[in-house]
Amino acid sequence: MSPSLAPDLRDLLALHLLPGLGPRLTAALLQRFGSAGAVLRAGAAQLRDVPHIGPKLSEDLSQAMRSVDVDAELVLIAKHGVHLRRLGTPEYPAALAEIHDPPHLLYVRGTIQPADARAVALVGSRQFTGYGRRAAERLATELARAGYVIVSGLARGIDGIAHRAALQAGGRTLAVMAGGLSRIYPPEHAGLADEVAAAGALVSEAPMKQEPLAGMFPARNRIISGLSRGVVIIEAAEKSGALITAEHAAEQGRTVFAVPGPIDNPSSAGTNALIREGAVLVRGADDVIEELEGVRAPPGPSPARAVSPPPDLDDVQRRLWEFLGEGARHLDEMAQRLGLPVPPLTGALLTMEMKKLVRRLPGNRYERC
Question: Is 14 within 8 Å of 36 (Cβ atoms)?
């Protein structure tokens, strides 16, 4: 037996489950018929009169309305501890309601609180570098300690790093999913998803069993930016999906921030281009807070954490490990600063690269993994 639901919300859920309807068509239908229940009672001929709904879609919708299984969706909602937030109610995030195409229903696992209005999104590449990791950890930690909620997409790479750093700092974090909340993606982040739900919320507009198809991620990104006061892009190549989030943020009137990167590293080509186009350059949380609040961040404990060197390193490898803790370095600089001949230096770097302790970058530069 499925959980009970208020009739108007049940009707909206049924409408939401119909294939082929997005936020804009749903809004057009609700405006034309006045309520979700009236839409569900309409025939194909009436649906055809709605702008942008042609003969084929009207027939498809009319057919789907007769077979939509709301009860099965409600069983999954209850099983996974999810609740619904409806557009136009006090429980719906106010910032998200302001965008031009907000979801009419949000699936939420966890809690959304009024304090979540003070949110900043941190997004970036799945193929991150050590520099990107350090930037994401530092920003998420500092912003969480300053009372900001960290929003991201639970993806591999920068997104997951930002969520984890916010949690480790004792902050709240929201993860916006492209697919349904019964299908955590990527699957290796299932444990992280549980932690996010306990200290914030998992959020999606997709039905519970929806697979996270590639075309759904750009739409997901508008929710990430819509929930946030500003969006920080950390490491993005020229065609990175994170840049779509920046586009949504600009269209929604959110502040776009970007972390600069090495000019010879393709991983930072997109972020550097954003800065050239007018995004706010970010060196630390102070830059974000000053832009959003007009004040510098209050002093607080340093987020830096000492990292112990891996075991079984010889003297040369240990010196390299400690030196690369300052950031990526060229081979010639390492040889000069450490006073080491190039042959044993390259041999040590090769060994460390095979152990996945360092990685080689373009231009004969190296960094910690």
Answer: yes
